């Protein structure tokens, strides 16, 4: 199924979650069993019951930065920290900020060093912008509201520790410290970039150029993965990292991945997947279709719509078992 139209579905706007559930582990969890082809309806708090002896749950410990910087008549979105005081950014209005232009945001002056082909600007600041205190949480564009104080905690996993993402690894938002204490787990880091929201604009998905994101895996996690009977990936970010690495024993490593996982990809490290519900025609939905099968995945999505599941970043999730 190489056509992007094969990964489409219609979602009522009312099912897009614009706020998180009252409790992190109170979200609904649809369970897909690939072996039996069955679908059942559970809650995230029941997830530890699906973790068997010898399993390892792998999570992404990236931390979302307060990337949205606002001043009257100016918005700067921090996309990537390139070097000391130098950032790749989206700037609005872009027409006013060409190469050589100056501005000020979040307590720092900047000059536009370069305008890249995709419209991003490379900004050199005179001091690091104070995004931690003056920035806003970068909620996804389909959440059509301004960020609120509660988003500082809820659009962040409870185990986030490595600064660098501009979007949350949303499957991890469901986990509480109590849940983690019940399951064998390990962490890796992949910093989520704006490319996660980039639409597929070509008709044939094999022609789509995937964005690249930096990752790192420590020795402790590599050893745990090597010993695991089954790896349960929490989210597509963890899946992309593990599947981008060569077969054979893992070692501590860092790099970047632009892997694009779509049918008929064959997985060699991930044995089960917990993931939220994703946008139609998105690379994330294509990854899920590669893991569970396109027909089974879309059947599950249609059932989720019938059952009024909440979709996207602050929504419910599905657990796909082998």
Description:
With 322 residues, the chain is of the alpha/beta class. It has two domains: 4-64 and 141-321, QueA-like; 68-134, Thrombin, subunit H (Beta Barrel), CATH 2.40.10.240. The chain is built from seven helices and 17 strands. The strands form three sheets. The chain has a nine-stranded mixed β-sheet, with helices on one face. A six-stranded antiparallel β-sheet has the order 5-6-7-10-9-8, with no helix packed on it. Strand 9 and strand 10 form a beta hairpin. The radius of gyration is 20 Å and the shape is globular. The mean pLDDT is 96.
What is the radius of gyration computed over CA atoms, rounded to a whole number of angstroms?
A: 20 Å
Round the mean pLDDT to the nearest integer and report it: 96
The largest beta-sheet arranges its strands as: 2-1-17-16-14-3-12-13-15
Number of strands: 17
The named CATH superfamily of the largest domain: QueA-like
Percentage of residues in strands: 25-35%
Identify the CATH class of the largest domain.
Answer: Alpha Beta
Report helical residue fraction. Answer: 10-25%
Structural class: alpha/beta
SSE pattern, N- to C-terminal: EEEEEEEEEEHHEHEEHEHEEHHE
The CATH architecture of the largest domain: 3-Layer(aba) Sandwich
Q: Per the principal axes of the C-alpha atoms, what is the gross shape? A: globular
Number of helices: 7
